[in-house]
Design a protein that fits this description.
Mean pLDDT: 82
Region (Disordered): 285-316, 814-841
Strand content: over 45%
Subcellular location: Cell outer membrane
Structural class: mainly beta
Biased composition (Gly residues): 832-841
Largest sheet: 22 strands, antiparallel, barrel
Helix content: under 10%
Radius of gyration: 29 Å
Shape: globular
Domain Outer membrane protein beta-barrel: 388-810
Signal peptide: 1-26
Distance between the termini: 40 Å
Low-confidence stretches: 1-30, 121-131, 815-821, 833-841
Length: 841
């Protein structure tokens, strides 16, 4: 999508060229045999600035352009047929400062080498860049949150970072949403992670905030990405370590609810580049309480169940990576990278249950004392070969990736009838334990080719294949202490579920200028999906079947002025359900509410149309977008009374008048009308401010359930920073998410805020930070409501939020930046996020 990023400035150049052509006779004296070449780079990241505007001007004060051109996708430009003499070279690009320098053209070819543009908040003086990037950047195709400029992130995790990124929110259960939608994909450095797809909210805890450079929110991904769902893509960009010589960082953070440590070691010499990182941490003092009231409507009476509970959670996380890059010859490069994530923890809870009428096997009062455990790990190995050519922008790359993912979930509870407190285990009325293992293997092969067709046209195409092998093995043991002394394995409640999914895809995109002010991008993707499932314990399954899905994509951008543009984009996307949605295992940890997955789910197909306006004036970036998203076969969570099933029920479940079942199904058509905007400004030299908001009107319809729900939802985000001195920065942020309608009810809104400061020490090599999350509020409460013709349920969950952290980071070694971007795989086609049913506790 980077073709579109600089479109306004690319088209602006054509205006200059048009003027030149109209004055060809007057400029004839300028024609000569000289030429200028160079490459435009971002001064901080050292990455190319594609389509930057390059204009050659006579010495001041004249502003009559002698020549002009837009840089290509790699930031390269070449001005030809120039008359020898003294000129000014002016380079500009939206979101960057303007660079102007004196050049002397000869009758031959003059190579200027890399020309670095400063970010908006930087100053340029004789090619010396000072300052820092703005906290928020508004670009034509994405919103960028520069997390490394936010001091309140120090000592936190990726969860803390995503809370403050534009259009994103994290609710009371640590579930991430993008514009209120959970159907998005998360990438790490533009490549997927099976751990993120499998259990997003736990995996995010294993990524230290100190290792995150930025978060990119892409609402309309192009065809070269895998078929994406409704909301878009979140790309977490980690800090690079490819610097000249030996360098690295070490850091430690301690807080009232968590502590962590991290480090990196990197080395670059000649054709070799080595990078590495290691991180780990602990979570503690995470206490919570909950309450709920469930009313089941029966013909003769209403049954009421009230639950009150307390909980305490502890956990650990860790991650690491190794990378080796080698350039054996000009135009050839090899890369081998490996990484791992791991996490685990336990939750101890006690839930007191009170019924209005006694129930068989439970009574009117009972308590469940439960210990839940979870742990998971993921390892990935990726090899890349990249071939470039003498022709600028022409490139071929091939990538091979293998990933292994394993998650375990379990619980063990003791039930005490007619008691409001835990007793000796020998006095328990019933005991149960369960362990679920979710192994997974993923193999990916991808090849991409970029072919320039002249200066203003580019053709991209590629092939991709993915093989996913996953499943679920679950065992349930039961014990009635009055009848036996040892657990017995249940013959009917275990699960042995194997699942295979094959995806083959081909795509092509074509970008060109229709007129001097209008740029078009046309693309299409075709994906074939094959799947198969088997239930070993019942000798049943889903026979192998496949389907073909066309996914068209188009966008156009029109330049309104030098600093503003309009963009219209359309895409059709597909989202395949992940194992947590498919797993048929029945989770019975809650005595009156069972959950399970649905292996017969079909993928979601979504049509998305977005119209956006972008403007950049001095130090202020502005973006506003209108969009409509419609999903005709949306995967929705559905709850119902077991005696009046709305969806198929596993045979092992014995219906009960007060038993609520929850699963997922393709039962709705959802439409979202959205308006979102973002402003990033620098009111003074020391003060930065960004404000964003998102308003939605949702229409949720289900013919199968005979339901229609509609209503408004939204959120807003404010971030501000103040540089008190050269070495001291103060920061603050505020986020509020409004209440949101669901297919069968409503979820409450919430507020998040934080304060922080960072002091730079040791001549810029060290940072000392202090952060406060919810400093004036100890707890935060979330509420959820469900209302159906057969039952209603109101739930409240209160968790501890106040947290204080202090951290220290030290940087050592050489600091010369020579980063190089590598190709990576993006498997972003599956609906995940750690949700779904039947996760085994």
């Amino acid at each position: 999508m980077k073709h579109v990023v600089a479109l306004a400035y690319r088209l602006l150049l054509l205006v200059f060229l048009s003027v030149l052509s109209q004055r060809a006779a007057a400029q004839a004296s300028v024609t000569g045999s000289g030429s200028l070449t160079g490459t435009v780079l971002d001064s901080l990241t050292q990455q190319p600035v594609p389509f930057a505007t390059v204009v050659l001007l006579p010495p001041a004060p004249s502003e009559k352009a002698a020549a002009g051109q837009s840089a290509d996708e790699q930031g390269h430009f070449e001005l030809t047929k120039l008359k020898a003499g003294a000129y000014r070279l002016r380079i500009s690009f939206v979101g960057y400062g303007v660079r102007t320098q004196a050049v002397t053209v000869t009758d031959g070819r003059l190579a200027l080498g890399p020309l670095r543009l400063p970010a908006t908040a930087q100053k340029l003086g004789e090619a010396v860049v000072v300052g820092q990037k703005p906290l928020m950047e508004v670009k034509p195709d994405r919103l960028v949150y520069n997390a490394d400029q936010d001091v309140t992130n120090a000592g936190g995790t990726a969860q803390d970072v995503l809370r403050k990124a534009p259009l994103l929110a994290i609710d009371g259960d640590d579930n991430v949403t993008m514009r209120g939608n959970s159907n998005f994909k998360v990438l790490i450095n533009n490549k997927p992670s099976p751990t993120l797809a499998a259990n997003l909210k736990e995996a995010l805890k294993s990524i230290p905030a100190d290792q995150i450079k930025s978060v990119e929110v892409i609402t309309t991904p192009p065809a070269k990405y895998d078929g994406e769902g409704t909301a878009g893509i979140i790309n977490i960009v980690l800090k690079k370590g490819a610097k000249q010589g030996l360098n690295g960082t070490v850091g430690a953070n301690a807080g009232t609810r968590g502590s962590n440590g991290n480090g990196s070691l990197n080395f670059r010499q000649g054709k070799f580049n080595f990078t590495s990182s290691l991180n780990g941490g602990l979570n503690y003092n995470n206490h919570s309480s909950s309450s709920s009231e469930q009313v089941t409507y029966r013909s003769t009476r209403n049954d009421t169940l009230r639950q009150e509970g307390t909980g305490s959670n502890t956990g650990y996380y860790g991650s690491g990576s190794l990378g080796l890059d080698y350039d054996p010859a000009e135009h050839h490069s090899l890369s081998l990278n490996g990484s791992f994530f791991s996490y685990g923890g336990a939750n101890q809870s006690a839930n007191l249950n009170r019924y209005s009428t006694p129930l068989p096997g439970f009574g009117a009062l009972f308590l469940r004392d439960t210990r839940s455990t979870y742990n998971g790990g993921n390892a990935e190995v990726t090899g890349t070969y990249t071939r470039t050519y003498k022709q600028e922008r022409r490139e071929w790359s091939t990538i091979l990736q293998y990933a292994y993912n394993s998650n375990r979930n379990g619980y063990e509870f003791s039930q005490f009838n007619n008691s409001d407190r835990p007793l000796d285990l020998s006095l328990a009325s019933y005991r149960e334990r369960s362990l679920t293992r979710l192994p997974g293997h993923e193999y990916t092969l991808q090849s991409d080719y970029t072919l320039p067709l002249g200066e203003k046209k580019t053709l991209e195409f590629g092939l991709k294949g993915i093989v996913r092998l996953t499943g679920s093995q679950a065992q349930v043991d039961t014990l009635f202490p009055a009848l036996a002394t040892e657990y017995a394995t249940s013959r009917y409640r275990g699960t042995a579920f194997d699942y295979r999914q094959d995806v083959e895809a081909a795509y092509a995109t074509y970008n060109f200028n229709a007129t001097p002010k209008l740029h078009l991008g046309l693309g299409g993707r075709v994906e074939r999906t094959g799947l198969w499932a088997e239930f070993a314990n019942t000798n049943t399954g889903i026979p192998y079947r496949s389907y073909l899905t066309p996914l068209p994509n188009a966008n156009l951008s029109y330049e309104l002025s030098k600093t503003s543009s309009l963009r219209l984009a359309y895409s059709r996307r597909i989202s395949r359900p992940y194992i947590y949605y498919l797993n048929p295992y029945v989770n019975r940890s809650n005595p009156i509410s069972y959950s399970y997955g649905n292996p017969n789910l079909d993928p979601e197909l979504t049509h998305s149309v977005e119209l956006s306006y972008n403007n950049f004036i001095k130090t202020t970036s502005f973006n506003v977008a209108l969009s409509v998203l419609r999903t005709g076969n949306s995967i929705e969570q559905v709850s119902f009374v077991s005696t009046q099933p709305l969806l198929p029920v596993p045979e092992e479940i014995v219906p009960s008048p007060n038993l609520i079942l929850t699963t997922s199904a393709n039962v709705a058509s959802n439409t979202a009308f959205q308006l979102n905007g973002y402003v990033s400004a620098k009111p003074t030299e020391k003060w930065s401010l960004s404000v964003g908001g998102n308003v939605q009107y949702l229409v949720l319809r289900s013919t199968a359930l005979e339901l229609t729900r509609s209503g408004f939802a939204g959120n807003y985000n404010i971030n501000t920073s103040y540089k008190a001195t050269k070495t001291l920065t103060l920061q603050g942020n505020l986020f509020q998410n409004l209440a949101r309608p669901t297919l069968q009810g409503r979820s409450s809104g919430f507020v998040y805020y934080g304060l922080g400061l960072r002091q730079t020490l040791l001549k810029g090599r060290a940072d000392l930070s202090f952060n406060a999350q919810y400093p004036f509020t100890a707890q935060r409460t979330f509420s959820y409501a469900t209302a159906t013709p057969t039952f209603s349920q109101d739930s409240r969950f209160t968790s501890q939020q106040r947290q204080f952290r202090v951290g220290f980071t030290y940087r050592f070694g050489q600091q010369q930046q020579t980063m190089r971007q590598r190709k990576s795989i993006r498997n972003d086609d599956i609906k995940g996020g750690g949700g779904g049913q039947g996760s085994g506790g």
